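Write out a record, focusing on structure:
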Amino acid sequence: MVLAANTYTLVLDSPLGKLGVQLQDAVITRLDYLGNRAVLKPAKTLSEKQISGQLGNYFSNPQSRFSLPFELQGTDFQLRVWNALTQIPSGKTLTYGELADRLGSGARAVGNACRHNPISIIVPCHRVISVSGIGGYSGKTDGREISRKKWLLSHEGIAGQALKICHRTPTSAIQQ
């Protein structure tokens, strides 16, 4: 869900188009992809400049880490999934099933929580993929959203064949 353009505190340019950032008391509550016609709203305050700077750093160097304050609102399960997403390092992926196993849940439930992530990029749901390929992004399996996911993964060094062959043998199966 993209909000009306005037509800974003910041509208920043990025390699993926305009990004809208909603803040409440200097804390990020949403980050959305906006159409390229959205009008830029540059950073004014120190916290806004930090957000703009860290996003810019990520787009320059995908290994840079975010240390921005954000607040997620969702169900207890969604919050568990979103917290787990922040633990996946840049350049690494997990399948929906692997993340589900870690959380004692099912792959579809994890995918549904990823679909509703309100702070993409910073809470990196793009790092969760299907066992048979890239999976979905923002609830879509093709189009602009998948192009964004592919770009983000490629930017982090995961591309091509790695997305086609992403099934990993569980450690427990290797040790048996």
